[in-house]
Every structure is written in C-alpha cells, then in structure tokens.
Amino acid sequence: MSKKSLLIVTMLMTMGATGRLWAQSQALTMSLEQLFQTADLHNTSIKSFDAAIREAEAGIKAAKAERLPDVDASVAFSYLGGGCIMDRDFSNGVGVHIPHYGNNFALTASMPIYAGGAITSGINLSRLAADMAKANASDNQQRVRMMLAGYYLQLHNLKNQEQVFAENIALTETLIGHTQKRQSEGVVLKNDLTRYELQLEQLKLGRTQVQNQAKVINHQLITALGMAEDVTILTTDAFELSTESAESREDYWQLVATDNSPALRRAELGVKISEEKVRMEKSARRPTVALVAEEHLDGPITIEIPNLNKNMNYFFVGVGVKYRFGSLYKNKHKINKARLGTETARQQQQMAVEGVENAVQSAYTNLQTAHAELETSRKSVELASQNYEVISNRYQNGLALVTDMVDAANQRLDAQLRLVSSRINVLYNYYNLKFITGTL
User: What is the pTM assigned to this prediction?
Assistant: First the structure.
C-alpha cells in the first residue's frame, strides 16, 4: 500500500472513530427526576410562569409604595401684560403698570394617614396575586412533569418492546436455521420454512415501528426539555415504587390532595381575592386623611395697587381631609357586585373540591386496576411460555405443525408485549395519581 493510500485509510478510520464518539456523546441516560430538574431550568412554559411570579412580586412593592409621601415640584416663568382699572360699567379706564416678568415656584408634599383601607387592600390584593401566580406556576410545573413522565414512560415501554422483538427475532432466526437443516434432510417442507421467514419479517417490521415511534417520542421529549435536536434520551430501570405510598389507601391520597393540590389552592385564593375586593369597594365610602405641606415662591405681587415688583415666599403645613359623598350612592352597586363575586368564588371552590376528590378516586381506582392487569399479564406470559415449550417439543418430535409453532410464538409475543405495557401502565397511573394530588 502506498503512503498516500495509507494516509487516506488512516484519516477515514479516525473520522469514523470520532463520529462514533460524537454520536455516543449525544446519548444521555437520565432518570425521571433528572428530567424534572432539567425542565425546571430550561422548559419554556415553566420559565414564563417564573417571570409571572417576579412580575407579581414587583406588584407588591408597587402597592406598598402608595404609603410613601407624594412630592411634586412646579416652576413657571411668564410675561404679564399691562393692566387696566375701570368703573363697573367699563368706563373711565386708567392704565396700570404691571411688572412684565413673573415667576412661580411651588413644592408640595402629601402623605396619606388614612385612606379608608384602600392602600391596605391594594397591598393584600397584590400579595394574593403573587400567591395566585405561584399556584399557577405550581400547577403548570405539575402538568409539564406529567407530560415528561408520559413521554419518558413511553420511551421506556418502547425500549422494552424493542428488547422483546429482538429476543423473538433471535429465537426465530435460530428456528429458521434448524428448519433449513431439517429441510435439507427432507424432514420438513419448503412451506414450513417460508412461514418462519414470514414471521421473521413481521417481527423485524414490528421492531422498526417501535424504533421509529421512539424517535418521535424522543423528539417531543427533548423539545419540552429545551435540548438540542441531536440528543437521544436513554431511560433507566430505576422505577422502584415505594410500597407505602403505592399501596396507601384512598383516604391517604385524598388528604394529600387537600394539602397540595394546586387547583384547590387557586380556588381558595380566588375566594380571598373576592373578599378583599369587597373591602376595597367599601373603602371608597370612607374619608381620606393626609398630611400636607407646601412651599411657594411667586412674583411679582399683583394683588396690591400699585403692584410690587418683588417675590413673595410662603409655606404651610396641615392635615387634609377628603370625603366623596358621591360614593354613598355610586359604590353600593360595586359593593353588591363584589359580594356576588365572592359567592361565585365560594361555589367554584366547592366545585374544585368535588372535582379533585372525584379525580383522586378515579386515579386511585385506575391504579388498582392496573395492578390487577399486571398480575394477569404475568400469568399470561407464564402460560404462553409453557404452551410454547410444549408445542416446540411436539414440533421437534413431529407431533405438531409449523402453524402451531407460529401461533404459539405469536401468543407468547403478544403476552410479553402486554406485560411490558402493563408494567408501564402501573407506573403511569401511579404518577398520574401524584399529579392529581400535586405531589409529582
């Protein structure tokens, strides 16, 4: 081999090795908890709700700022025209000299002492809005985690199904080898070999379909995680359920939901917000009291005749009281509307309690059903495997047809796939129960 050819081969081998390493570096083995942590940092939906929380917390500071004094300053420069004095019947007018250049400066300050509870209600509403933003963020986080759990469990299910297909493909290829040998000996017909070859192609097609479906789910998963498109998520087998939590009674989960459900938290906050709005509307019927202070520097002094071309400086401090009598007949409708809103919020809270209770009961029942299905699937695999062994022995001794072998293999394959799905179904229903109770 020439030096040039050797160099080309070496470069190709190096590129191939580098490509394999690069491809392997894109495959990430992650647990479900690691997926949740990654989503908390990078998921677009979660980040948007975090921004809403910061916005609501800024609203609390803005509401508290209403307790601070207001300070205003104004300055003006003007040109004053000539004056004229005349009788009341507008006769005998006499011109009066007025200094032409005027100036006005005012500095005013006021600090609320009592606003009828409006400021306090505004602060409370801002705090409740921040709590509502946090409850919405928690609910959204639970939904994102449930979505990720669904994708992750589907990937794990597909991985296990691929293993089942791989095992059956290997077994079928072995049987094809035995059948070819027996055909050469004249023991079996070509038709028997064709049936096995047809079964092998169906198994390969099933494996390809599973692999392609896994690619689709993986893309949806990495998109939700905000990861690069060339990343492949590999699942782990760490799905050990806590016996205590998985087998707890329904009343345990009902109590967990009462303490942690975001839906119940939002309904409770809705009632508090409505009650605070009633207090806000009532505050408009109360007087407002404020400390006031003003500083003025005006010139010229035109209230004297003759005018004084001088500046006049004065200030005052005091207490101002304001009462809007119109609120006595205007705000009663607003107060009534706010009270009706509170009653509506209480009804919605009761509906939320009933809805969560029913959802927990349904999810708990589905979990128990999934456990029963899992036990049935395990028994089915056991029976299908025993049947396959019996048929296989009979076929080897010439006591069964190849169609019997194919049927037995298909029955065992179906039982194995159902078992894989049943295991994932138990996990899915368990995580769904945690999602409904707000503890995922």
Answer: 0.78
